[in-house]
UniProtKB/TrEMBL annotation:
Pfam families: FAS1_DH_region (PF13452), OB_ChsH2_C (PF01796), zf-ChsH2 (PF12172). It comes from the Bacteria. Residues 249-310 form the ChsH2 C-terminal OB-fold domain. SUPFAM superfamilies: Nucleic acid-binding proteins, Thioesterase/thiol ester dehydrase-isomerase. Signal peptide: none annotated. It comes from Paraburkholderia unamae. Residues 13-153 form the FAS1-like dehydratase domain. InterPro entries: ChsH2_C (IPR002878), ChsH2_Znr (IPR022002), FAS1-like_DH_region (IPR039569), HotDog_dom_sf (IPR029069), NA-bd_OB-fold (IPR012340), Thioester_dehydratase-like (IPR052513). Residues 211-246 form the ChsH2 rubredoxin-like zinc ribbon domain. This is OB-fold protein.
């Protein structure tokens, strides 16, 4: 199909490099330890100096998947360290949106690592608008696939060295105009605002029991039949004793907010933003990630008491969510 004239301005941005966004802190052991605790990662090369020294790394290193978190703004949106760029790497999305392509859906994200980063290294990333597709017609509607690539680098220790690239993050979204209606009945239905369907969680043989339990109003946690350890997310083998035998326990559904994030952007339907998501520590001792409901994002606190509730979406999708309990 013929290109819109207004796309010339948008396509002129392809290849544009947006300035540096710095990490608030050098790579450090306390943040790695906290991240490993939250994610339940036990590899000693991240937290045990003696084990790391005896490994191929020779010293403590950061988990590769911490690459993106090192350069995050923190609790407040766009709160980046001094010296970071104030350019908006999403300006192409804004230009496309101004032409009536107001909907957006995340398509995929790919994180690549060149090497482990080490204690004391100072990181930053730059953003490049990698590509914008031709106008595409999909079941969702008509629009453009926009791909951004964030390149992460470690700053050289001295004036003579060069900064070293350590990884990349590819982030792609589809910016689109919803599909047009074709009949009078469709047009009448379109006059009523529609809530996009909430995506169903991925389900496998290892996790099926959890989602079936949710449909029955039960919060089921996997338990090793050999050592009694609880684990979540579910998996085929116990990380503690390596047994393949397991059963489940029905959790009380009570717990506390161990940690949380508030999602702001990109805004993906049908979720409402800001969107609080918590790491909940259950009474039984294990933790799980779930959306918080019935609370304003600014009122969420660490240690807050919460209770599970099972909410139904789109007819048969049942999800466990957590609601803060009233203070005694």
């Amino acid at each position: 199909m013929a290109e819109h004239e207004w796309m010339n301005e948008v396509r002129a941005l392809v290849g544009k490099e947006y300035g540096r966004v710095y990490a608030w802190d050098p790579v450090n052991a306390p943040m790695i330890r906290q991240w490993c605790e939250i994610m339940e990662v036990t590899n000693p090369v991240y937290t045990d100096e003696a084990a790391a020294a005896a490994s191929v790394h020779g010293a403590l290193v950061s988990p590769p998947t911490m690459l993106q978190p090192w350069c995050e703004p923190g609790l407040y949106m766009n709160n980046y360290p001094p010296g970071s760029t104030d350019e908006n790497p999403y300006e192409s999305l804004k230009l496309i949106e101004a032409q009536g392509y107001a909907s957006v859906v995340a398509v995929n994200s790919e994180l690549e690592f060149d090497r482990y980063v080490r204690m004391g290294e100072k990181l930053y990333y730059t953003t490049r608008l990698d590509s914008i597709s031709e106008e595409k017609v999909t079941a969702l509607g008509t629009g453009y696939f926009v791909t951004l690539v964030m390149t992460y680098c470690a700053q050289a220790a001295g004036n003579d060295g060069a900064d070293e690239e350590v990884g990349r993050l590819l982030f792609r979204v589809f910016k689109f105009r919803p599909a047009k209606v074709h009949t009078k009945e469709d047009a009448a239905a379109a006059e009523k605002p529609k809530t996009p369907a909430r995506p169903a969680p991925g389900m496998s043989d290892d996790t099926r029991f959890f989602w079936e339990g949710a449909k029955a109003g039960k919060l089921l946690i996997q338990r090793c039949k050999s050592c009694g350890s609880l684990r979540h997310p579910p998996g085929p083998v116990c990380p503690s004793c390596h047994s393949f035998e397991w059963d489940t326990v029905t959790a009380s559904g009570r717990g506390t907010v161990y940690s949380f994030v508030v999602m702001h952007y990109p805004e993906v339907p049908p979720f409402e933003y800001p969107n609080p998501v918590a790491l909940v520590e259950l009474e039984e001792g294990t933790r799980l990630v779930a959306q918080l409901v019935g609370v304003k994002p600014e009122e969420v606190t660490i240690g807050q008491a919460v209770q599970v509730e099972f909410n139904t979406f789109e007819g048969d999708l049942v999800l466990p969510q957590f609601r803060p309990l009233a203070s005694a």
